Amino acid sequence: MTKIAPSILSADFSKLGDEIKDVEPDVDYIHVDVMDGHFVPNITIGPLIVEAIRPKTSLPLDVHLMIENPENYVKAFVEAGADIISVHQEACPHLHRVIQQIKNEGAKAGVVINPATPVSHIEPILGDVDLVLVMTVNPGFGGQSFIESTVPKIKALDELRKQHNYKYEIEIDGGVKKGTAKTCVDAGADVLVAGSAIFNQDNRQKAIKSIKSSLK
Ligand code: DX5
Ligand code: ZN
Predict the structure, then answer these.
(1) ipTM score assigned to the predicted complex
(2) How far apart are CA 98 and CA 65, in angstroms?
(3) Best label site of 12, 28, 64, 187, fewest CB within 10 Å?
(4) Could you tell me the pTM of the whole model?
(5) pLDDT tens digit string along 106-141?
(6) Would the CB of 23 count as within 6 Å of ligand 1?
(7) Strand, coil or helix: what is 6?
């Protein structure tokens, strides 16, 4: 069963608790986009918001760190209630160390690659991660268009997983809607992050249902 992870980036930040409650019954993770204005051109939220939303849901908080030096903030995000923490390969010259740090803190560890980063750059870490997040847009903003050339990377990750019996989930993030969602799931994606396709819609239940039914 494909998992859905709504990105709160497109939610109404003045009532995040209600926004999460609105989608909670129909989804699997809550995706939290953390941006620092350095690794990506936008600034969003930090551990304080994760701590504030933690009591509002029992779903896993899937925290996507689009920040430089993520090792400095792993502990704070785990203490705030993050269940999964993903770091960008492009931001981590010492990737094994950060992945190990996330696990030692007690969270699940994910690695993320930008659209222009090849799978080969993360091959050495694939046996150590719980999740691989393939960016299907350049990170920084919601509502961007899906980049088709990322699809073969999803396939390659699925093949590597079968070949080596790796256990990671494959998550994709950016430009998910009807059509692109199915393309990714057919290629091997297990978890679909969707921001604008869910939170920019008046009826979120209907929006989620329509993504799910597009996968058949
Ligand atoms: C982009 C973020 C995404 C974003 C996706 O930098 O990582 O999670 O919220 O937004 P949509 O689904 O609107 O492309
Ligand atoms: Zn994200």
Answers:
(1) 0.98
(2) 12
(3) 12
(4) 0.98
(5) 999 999 999 999 999 999 999 999 999 999 999 999
(6) no
(7) strand
